[in-house]
Amino acid sequence: MYISSAEIEKIAQLAKLKLGQSEKQELLRQLGDIIAYVEKINQLDLSQVPAADSADIEPVNLRQDKIEAGLTPQQALMNAPAKNKGFFSVPKVIKK
Amino acid sequence: MNELTPYQTIIGLEVHAQLKTDSKLFCGCHWQFGAQPNARTCPLCLGLPGALPVLNRKAVEFAIKLALAVEARIAQRTAFSRKNYFYPDLPKGYQISQFDSPIASSGKLKIRLNSGIKTIHIRRIHLEDDAGKSIHAESWVRENESLIDFNRCGVPLIEIVTEPELSTPGEASRFLQTIRQLLRYLDICDANMEVGNLRCDANISVRPHGGATWPGVKTEVKNMNSFRAVERALAYEQQRQIELLEHGEKILSDTLLWNEKAQVTESMRIKEQAHDYRYFPEPDLPPLKIDTSWLDKIKNEMPELPDARRDRFIRQYKLSRADADLFTATVELADFFEKVVVRIGDVRLVNTWVKTELLRSVNQSADEATPISADAFAELLDFVKQKKITAQSAKIVLVEMLTSEKAVAEIIHDKKLTLLSDANQLGVIVDQAIADNPDAVKHYRSGKRQLLNFFIGQVMKLTRTKADPEAAKKILLEKLDAE
Fold first, then answer.
1. B211: Cβ–Cβ under 8 A, 6 or more apart, which residues?
2. DSSP per residue over B280-304, as a string?
3. Residue A96's pLDDT is what?
4. How far is A21 from chain B (nearest CA, A)?
5. Closest CA to B274 of B97, B91, B85
6. Containing domain of residue A30, as a range?
7. What pLDDT digit, counting tens, does each position of B347-399 carry?
C-alpha cells in the first residue's frame, strides 16, 4: 500500500472534502495506483545526471516594474456567485 | 522584564512589510491604497485558471536591499514555494511564498535601548504575495456575509523573521521602530502600522527565571496595529502566561488576536491540524539566480543608512549624540537639516532653530517635522542670520509659514516685520521709552546699568519686536548716558 486510509482522511480534511466510505475506498485505490506509477521514476539511476540548474531564471529575464491594465471591477465580479457593493460576498468567516 | 520578577520572557517577531513597487509581485496590476474595491485586479491575482506568475524584478531588488542593510547572507539561488490553505481572501488557494530557500538569512539589527545597544538576529527574509482584504465588522456588511476586496491580493510583501531574542514588550516595539526607520531610509516601504503596510505577529513564551530550558510552548499574537498595541498586547500576554504558571496551570500553544477595544488577547481557537500548509516548490516559477553583477549593482544603489548618517552628523556637524539621533530619526528630517545647513552654513543657528522652533511647532514629532520646504526654512534663517529681522519676528513668520503658502519675504512685508534700524525712527521710540519710565531712568543714572536690558525690552514692546536690538542699544546708551 502506498497510501493509508488515515492519509486519505487527512487530505480530505485539508481539502475540506467530506468523503463517504465507498469514495474513500475508491480514492485509496486510485491514489495508490497513481503513486505506484510515479514511483517508477525512483527505479532510475540518476546518480550520474546533473541537476537541472539550467532552468533557473536569470535576473535579466524578470519582469520590469511596469503597470499593465487589468480588469474593471465589473469584469472582476462578473462570475462571482454573490456580490455586494462592489465586493465579492462570501459566507461569513471569522476574523483572521 | 526587570531582574526582580521571577520570570523570563522571550519574544520573536514576524514582520510583514508591503514593498513600494508600482505593480504587484507577479502581475502588472497597479496597487494603491484607497482605490475602489476590486479595481486593481487581473486574471493572475484573481487566481483564474491558466494565468502564470512573472516575478517583479524591483520587488526582488527591494528585498535584497533590506538584506544588505541587515548584513544578511544573500542566497545565490532562491526559490518560491506554495503555502496551501483555504481562506476566502486567497483566491488561488495557496500563497506564493518561500520555504527552504529564502532570499536571505542570518542577518542582524542593532536596536538602541535605554540600557544600551542590543543586537537582534534575523533568521530569514523572504518574499511572498499578500492576500486580499476581508471586511466583516462594518455596519453595511450583511449579517451572514463577509466581503472581499482583491486589490491587495498579490501585493509584494517581505517577511522578516527574528530569532526569539527580544526580552520585553518594549524591546519588541523598539525593534519594530528600528525596522520602520530602516525601511523608510531604504525607500522600499511606507512602513505605517496603522494603515497596515507594516504588520507584525509575535511569538511569546515565559519561563521561571533561571530555568534550564524553555518549555517549548508559546503563543502567537496577531492583529496589533500600532507600536503601542504591540507593547500592550505583549505585556498583557506576558502577564497572562505568568499568572497561569503561578496557578500551576499549563500554557497551551495557541494563536491569539489582540482586541484593541477590550485590551485583551483572545484565542482564535484554531485546530492545530489546520497549520499543515503542505509547502511544495512553485512549479510556475523556476528558481532565481542572484549573481554578483546584479548584487553589485544593487549595492551601488544603497543609500546611507540611519546609523552611518547619525555618526557622520556627529563628526561633520559636531552635533551631540542626542541631536544627531533626533535629526536622523527620519530620512526626510535628515535631508531637511542638511539642505538648510548647506545653505546657511551656521550649524549652530540651524540646530537651534530646527530643534527648538520647528520641532516645537510640530509637537516634537520627528515624523511630521518637515511641513515646510528646506528652501523656505533656509530663507527664513537667512533673514535671521543677516539680521534683517529679529529672532522674535522670525518666530512669528514661522508660525505663519506653517499654515500659509506665502513666501518668507511676503509674510515679513504683510506683517510689517521688517527690521527697524533707522536711527531717526528708533530715536523717537527710545525717547518715548525714556519718557514712560522716569523711575527706571533715575535708577539707571544712579548706577543700575543692568536696567539697559529693561529699556531694550521696552523698545521691543513699543515696536512689536521689530527693532534692531543692536541699533536700539546704541541709541539708548547715547540718550541714557547724556545727562
1. B8
2. EE-TTS--EE--HHHHHHHHHTPPP
3. 43
4. 22
5. B85
6. 5-41
7. 898 998 888 888 877 665 555 656 788 898 898 898 888 888 888 888 888 88
What are the residue boundaries of the structural domains of chain B, listed by start?
A: 7-294, 311-404, 423-480
Q: Is A29 among the domain residues?
A: yes
Interface of A with B in 69-88 (CB under 8 A): 70-73, 76-77, 82, 84-88
Q: Do A67 and B84 touch (CB under 8 A)?
A: no
Convert the pLDDT of each residue in B35-88 to its tens digit: 899 999 999 999 999 999 999 999 999 999 999 999 999 999 999 999 998 889
Nearest Cβ partner for A64 among B57, B146, B276: B57
Question: Across the A/B interface, how many CB contacts are shorter than 8 Å?
Answer: 144
Query: Which residue from A minimizes the CA distance to B287?
Result: A56
A-chain CB neighbours of B23 within 8 Å are 63, 65-68
What is the C-alpha to C-alpha distance for residues B3 and A82, in angstroms, rounded to an integer?
Answer: 57
Q: Is residue A81 part of a domain?
A: no
Q: Which residues of A touch B22 (CB under 8 A)?
A: 65-67
User: Smallest Cβ distance to B145: which of A67, A72, A89?
Assistant: A89
Cβ neighbourhood burial of A42 (10 Å; 0-12, 13-18, 19+): exposed
Residues of chain A contacting B286 with CB distance shorter than 8 Å: 55-57
B298 touches chain A (CB under 8 A): no
A73 located within any domain: no
Examine residue A28 and state whether it is found in any structural domain, yes or no: yes
DSSP single-letter state for residue B39: -
Name the strand (E) or helix (H) holding B29: none
User: What CATH number does the domain located at B423-480 have?
Assistant: 1.10.10.410
**Which residues on neighbouring strands pair with residue B41, listed in sequence order?**
A71
Three-state secondary structure call for residue B178: helix
B286 contact A CB<8A:
yes
pTM of the model: 0.85
State whether A87 and B290 contact (CB < 8 Å): no
**Tens digits of per-residue pLDDT, B278-334?**
999 999 999 999 999 999 999 999 999 999 999 999 999 999 999 999 999 999 899
Q: Would you call B290 an interface residue with chain A, using a CB distance cutoff of 8 Å?
A: yes
Q: How many domains does chain A divide into?
A: 1
C-alpha cell at B165: 531574542
Q: Is A77 in Cβ contact with B136 (below 8 Å)?
A: no
